[in-house]
Amino acid sequence: LSKEPTLAATVKLDVPRGATAPEGGKVALRLWIGESGSVDIIVVVRTNVPVIMTETAVTAFKAARFQPEEINGQPVKSQLAIEVSFDGAAEIRRLPLSAPTMLRVR
Asked: What is the pTM of this model?
């Protein structure tokens, strides 16, 4: 591994007006990132927010672009596990890839 995948630009979460998440509201996603930096597959690992907010996170990351992972300077496919927190302002953090898969969204 020469370089881990990184976001090429900020991901904007357009939370619908009036949508509210419970305290501690989070969505955990697993992203499959292609060699070009596009998000090829998204899996919702877990969520405790309303469906509309889960869909907001999925839609935002489907449109996201990444600088792909590189091995010996060559771009390769990779996976990235993230958590989107809806407490106040939306926050995104990396998770270990060991989280179980529950629902597949394309």
From this structure: 0.80
| CB-based contacts of 22, cutoff 8 Å, min separation 6 | 48, 49
Per DSSP, what are the bridge partners of residue 104?
43
β-pair type (26-33, 78-85): antiparallel
In terms of Cα–Cα distance, which of 4, 10, 30 is closest to 82? 30
Kindly list the distances between the CA atom of residue 53 and the CA atoms of 29, 66, 72, 96, in Å, as whole numbers in the listed order: 13, 22, 38, 22
DSSP 98: T
Question: Which pLDDT tens digit goes with each residue over 23-52?
Answer: 778 899 999 999 999 999 999 999 999 999
Report whether 81 contacts 96 (CB < 8 A).
yes
